[in-house]
Amino acid sequence: LQHWEDPAGNVLFSQSNGNALLPTIEALYLLDMDDEWHDFSFLLKETSRIFSITSSNSFFQDVFLGMDTGLKVVRNKRSKVETLLADEIAEYLRGAVIRGVEEDTEGNIYFAREVDQWYRWNNNQKQLDTLALTDSLTNTPLQFSCSFNIQFDATKEYLWGISCNQNDEGQLHKMNPQTGKVITYTYHYQFTDFYISQDETIWLLYHSRIGTSGLLSFDPSTGQFQPYFSPQNNILANTYPRIIIEDSERQLWIGTD
What is the pLDDT of residue 79? Predict the structure, then answer.
């Protein structure tokens, strides 16, 4: 089960068939602001039925679907579908896996490909740009894989994202959308998800090849990571943490395998 909330307060839930890395979604249901349920499974007709994240101003209007074959924009009331970065591929192949979707204050949609690329979609001009991500220290193009999520901070000034490098180290990126310059902070374990809290603390989930997992906090003002659990009390140690979110009471919720 995964869920996504739009700015209007509608919550979209997915029902999946297993614990695979990219589980097949069998059904979609929406809980609106009046606590009424709606069957949104019709959206699955527009997709490969495998996607990692969705985002919209309202799920009753435009819905952005990030999938293993690209990004699709579904205009819910008009049944019009726009396809970006999507190719017809064989069932045993993987295309442009889209892992994260975010919107800025000007209506631009940012989304992250799993490998090497972030994009910006101007919904007014219908223009897609590949962001030229540049390392602020070396002034060279940024290379990465396992880019699992992106999120703006509260000011919408910086776009944050996670990935890993060739050594499977976790990378936390801070990108200036105006310049494309990126500051990268590395950690010795790979990140699986992150969330920026109301006080600007960044909470990150990690997992290592040796099987240990955990929760970190990151202070943007100091650039330091801090483990939340001690080794003796790490309740995530033998799990695979996949998603983290903060509720209105500033409690963290973590979904694991």
Answer: 46
| Whether the Cβ atoms of residue 64 and residue 75 lie closer than 8 Å to each other | no
Q: b/e map of 146-182 (b: 16 or more CB within 10 Å)? A: bbbbbbbeeeeebbbbbbbbeeeebbbbbbebeeebb
Query: Which 3 state secondary structure label does DSSP give 124?
Result: coil
- Give the pLDDT score at 73: 76
Q: What is the pLDDT of residue 90?
A: 57
What is the spatial distance between Cα 214 and Cα 125, in angstroms, rounded to a whole number?
Answer: 42
Q: Identify the band that residue 148 occupies on the pLDDT scale cut at 50, 70 and 90.
A: confident
CA dist list (Å): 256 to 19, 164, 205, 221: 10, 20, 10, 29
- How many helices (H) and strands (E) would you count in the chain? 0, 23
Question: Is residue 88 within a helix (H) or strand (E), and if so which, with residue range?
Answer: none
Radius of gyration in angstroms for the set of CA atoms belonging to the chain, rounded to a whole number: 18
Q: From residue 101, how far is each of 125, 126, 137, 146 by CA, in Å?
A: 18, 16, 26, 15
